[in-house]
Amino acid sequence: MSVLIPFNYRPYPFQVDLLKARDRGTLLMLTRWHRRAGKDKTFWNMMIKEALKRKGQYYYLFPEYKQGRRVIWDGMDNDGFSFLDHIPPEARGGIPNQQEMKIRLSNGSLIQIIGTDDYDKIRGSNPVGMVFSEYAYQNPAAYDVASPILLRNGGWAAFNSTPFGKNHFYDMENMLKADPEAFVQVATIADTFDWDGEPLLTEKDLDRERKRGKSEEFLQQEYYVSYNANAQGYY
């Protein structure tokens, strides 16, 4: 039986360039997309596809282990569709390990969700693909540990986040912008539309946030992905 991958996922037009970049073999990718732009849904489906193409270990990393359980392992989209159900039954290689958030695929690949609050778990392993979600809030030492491994095995790494001031995510973006072989994409609410050309979020949506007490600095940081907005500890 043939199964279409990604499974039960249709990327929005602005998300397609990222997926095409990985299809071309791009090894370093970074997106600075606004809040609620579908970062994890897109990167999760990209990782599943890659894990079915090449047998190996794949890590999906969050700032904290418990965040990975909430967002991916127990997470659902706006329609109530589980993130784990993007892995078709035919592609699963057994019962997922609930305790360690590990999923074995039918080709022998292993996907695991971990937190960089305990990044030493990466040492001694051999991942060939890694996604760093909300990288601006992560411990950058995790990628420092992983990068020599990926260099040796021809693996890839992808970073997504909204900004948190000009920290290591800002530095990573500038480094990759200077690399002609890397992929970088920035998207504010003025750049993201659904399949019918409707914006995912509008200024009216932000006005509702303002009425709920959100500061202009918060809105600029989270929805206009500004590095210059004051980093007040939003998470």
Structure description:
The protein has 235 residues and is α/β, with parallel strands linked by helices. The protein is built from 7 helices and 7 strands; from the N terminus they run αβαβαβββαβαβαα. A 7-stranded mixed β-sheet has the order 3-4-2-5-6-1-7, with helices on both faces. The longest helix is centred in the N-terminal third of the chain and has 15 residues. The protein is globular, with a radius of gyration of 17 Å.
Outline the biggest β-sheet.
Answer: 7 strands, mixed
First-last Cα distance: 43 Å
Q: Write down how many β-strands occur, each being a DSSP E stretch of 2 or more residues.
A: 7
Tell me, briefly, the overall form.
globular
Mean pLDDT: 95
Radius of gyration: 17 Å
Class of secondary structure makeup = alpha/beta
How much helix, percentage-wise, in residues? 25-40%
Beta-strand residue percentage = 15-25%
- What is the N-to-C order of secondary-structure elements (H for helix, E for strand)? HEHEHEEEHEHEHH
> Strands of the biggest beta sheet: in what spatial order?
3-4-2-5-6-1-7
> What is the helix tally?
7
Which regions are unreliable across 5 or more consecutive residues at pLDDT < 50? Answer: none
Summarize the structure.
This protein is of the alpha/beta class and 235 residues long. Helix content is 31%, strand content 16%. The protein has helices spanning 16-23, 39-53, 65-73, 141-153, 168-177, 203-211, 216-223; strands at residues 28-33, 57-62, 102-104, 110-115, 127-133, 156-160, 183-187.
